[in-house]
Amino acid sequence: MKIKPKNERQEHSNSFEEEREKLHRAVLTSVSHDLKTPLSCIIGSLEIYERTKEKLTLEKKNILINTALQEAYRLDSFVTNILDMAKLESGALKIKKELCVMDLLLEDCLILLGRRLQECDVSIKAIPATFPVTTDPLLLMRAICIVMDNAARYASLHPVINVEYEKVGDQVLIRVQDNGPGIPKEKMEEIFSKYARFAIQDHKHSGTGLGLPICREIMRLLGGTVTVANLAGGNGTIFTLAFAA
Fold it and tell me: Which domain holds residue 171?
């Protein structure tokens, strides 16, 4: 067995520590902005409601409550992503496979996403018909929900999301297509990197940016992959989840 020289081992250790410190700083920066922003909005909306509720119309009351609720959902999503990434990196997530039916699993995804898809025109299609699969349903649903939520987030002003799934040989393919502007070619791989996403300051679509990296890690645990491509003519993006059934 070849033993690395002491100085080489030290350099490797230093590099690992530098990467860990880099991620630690990025997490703190992301948390300070992306978690504090929705929390401030929740507090602000509820404070206005409490101070002026006697004078507000029913419509304005509903707007304030709905704003606080939407930001609470967003905050919950951020925290869930951070906890999921921590579990993935520590190896705490364990696969529990069982037999499940794809159409029922996707229906559960729609229920879980709920309000996130309220403004979206969503269609689900099996090719040629629905079928059972053996997988971890909770982890697969998490991966699908991440991709569908991403589609809703970056779709056009009138979001359209088409979900198709089929079995090709021993592989299950789930395609989630949106009608957004697409992704620049140089960003295709970057969107799956937790390091790169933390560095992006996107105020329009604020968030920890951990969704797609988590999706990739989940699909890896399931023995599968997640890939992305732009549709012809810049008319949207299509994510493909593939795994063995």
Answer: 98-244
